[in-house]
From TrEMBL:
Organism encoding this protein: Dicentrarchus labrax
Main location: nucleus
InterPro entries: HDACs (IPR000286), His_deacetylse_dom (IPR023801), His_deacetylse_dom_sf (IPR037138), Ureohydrolase_dom_sf (IPR023696)
Keywords on record: Hydrolase, Nucleus
Listed Pfam families: Hist_deacetyl (PF00850)
Gene: hdac10
A GO cellular component entry from the record: nucleus
Protein name: Histone deacetylase 10
Length: 410
């Protein structure tokens, strides 16, 4: 069982935010105001009975709170947690709105409490409302999205997210998690690779169990390259949500894994090619106050568009990771054409007809990445174009600049 009460602490957010400031990343981000999730938002995922029960917690005595808490697994209700949980879910929704309306390209919500263990009618693993599951339903409903990809790189299985979408083919849920053949919390049979989703949702739930601790960068990248990315390209999401838990990084007392914080630069970068770059990362776990802020910074810096660092220590996946990888691929072979063995086609199948193909669609990118205002007499740096203040403004250029001014921090 987890002991979240001693590790899921407010310092997790303060050290992460301080690190973003110290590394000059906070200044490059657009701050999005937070709001409370409404009842209607929360009811997208949770039952009315559960919401009404949580609503009463701010008015309970300590004794009543203890009693209330006992019915759930590994969660502690503080009188203030209902308010915090509404803000956490609301922050995720504000981020979805900002990305879907094009205000920003992508973003990250640094929130507590986390969400991915929480279920329709139950708190669990310090999660009260399922922030990312609510965000996925909200994005589908408000923006009419047909396909949402949820990537859960937290070291725990987000069983709450799985339960929410396991029969829903419009949400593809991918999770890797410490499992150790069901010995690791939450010790569920349904966290294994053969839980692929149900009914119409079969094939849209991907579990990668880690059966050993100490997984490294190579193991993580192998699973991305050989399982997640091929399927994600075939799925072709309209939006990518990340259950961004960093207890899967080195030094974490829960995960006991060995991937370095810079691996999250690569994982983020690889996901930014999907959904036209629309990506919302929402913090889940991460309990080492040294590696957590480093991992957060790696993720945010990549979201800002900086190139990923050279990957270090890529010495190939370990045997246990390879075994998991093969199990997942065969469990999903029947659902995804990218996982089927390509047929061996003979010459006789080669078409003699002239091949035709459409012109590739136009790629829309802002004409200018960043605008720079320089004092008189300062030389224009390489790669920048200079417009003198006294020159007659060309309306075409002014239009472009206005566009840039709105987008340069995004
Ligand atoms: C975080 O990792 C460092 C380095 O391994 C270690 O000294 C420290 O005890 C860890 N902190 C926690 C909370 O596990
Ligand atoms: Zn976790």
């Amino acid at each position: 069982s987890l002991c979240f009460t001693s590790i899921e602490v407010p310092e997790r957010l303060t050290v992460s935010h301080e690190a973003l400031i110290k590394n000059g990343l906070a200044d490059r981000c657009v701050s999005v105001p937070v709001r409370e999730a409404t009842d209607a938002d929360i009811l997208l995922v949770h039952s009315e009975e559960y919401l009404e029960a949580v609503k009463k917690t701010p008015y309970m005595t300590l004794e009543d709170l203890k009693e209330f808490t006992l019915q759930y697994g590994d969660v502690y209700f503080h009188p203030n947690i209902y308010h915090c949980a509404k803000l956490a879910a609301g922050a995720a929704l504000q981020l979805v709105d900002s990305v879907m309306t094009g205000k920003v390209r992508n973003g990250m919500a640094l929130v507590r409490p986390p969400g991915h263990h929480s279920m329709s009618s139950a708190a669990n693993g310090f999660c009260v409302f399922n922030n990312v599951a609510i965000a996925a339903q909200y994005a589908k409903q408000k923006y009419g999205l047909k396909r949402v990809l949820i990537v859960d790189w937290d070291v725990h299985h987000g069983q709450g997210v799985q339960y929410c979408f396991e029969d829903d083919p419009s949400v593809l849920y991918f999770s890797w998690h410490r499992y150790e053949h069901q010995k690791f919390w939450p010790q569920l049979r349904e966290s294994d690779y053969d839980s692929v989703g149900k009914e119409k949702g079969a094939g849209f739930n991907i579990n990668v169990p880690w059966n050993k601790v100490g997984m490294k960068n190579s193991d993580y990248l192998s699973v991305f390259c050989h399982v997640l990315l091929p399927v994600a390209y075939e799925f072709c999401p309209d939006l990518v949500l990340v259950c961004a838990g960093f207890d899967s990084a080195i030094g974490d007392p829960e995960g006991e894994m060995c991937a370095s914080p810079d691996i999250f630069a690569h994982l983020t970068h690889l996901l930014m090619n999907l959904a036209g770059g629309k990506l919302c990362a929402v913090l889940e776990g991460g309990y080492n106050l040294t590696s957590l802020p480093q991992s957060v910074c790696q993720t945010v810096q990549t979201l800002l568009g900086d190139p990923a660092p050279r990957p270090a220590n890529l010495d190939g996946p370990c045997e246990s990771a390879l075994e998991s990888l093969h199990c997942v691929r065969s469990a999903h072979r029947q659902y995804w054409s990218c996982l089927k063995h390509a047929g061996i086609k003979g010459d006789e199948e080669k078409s003699q007809e002239e091949q035709v193909w459409p012109e590739p669609p136009k790629r829309v990118t802002p004409p200018i990445r960043a605008a720079l205002v320089l004092p008189n007499g300062v030389a224009c740096p390489d790669g920048c174009e200079s417009f003198g203040a006294s020159e007659d403004a060309d309306p075409v250029i002014v239009n472009k600049l206005r566009y840039v001014a709105a987008a340069c921090n995004a």
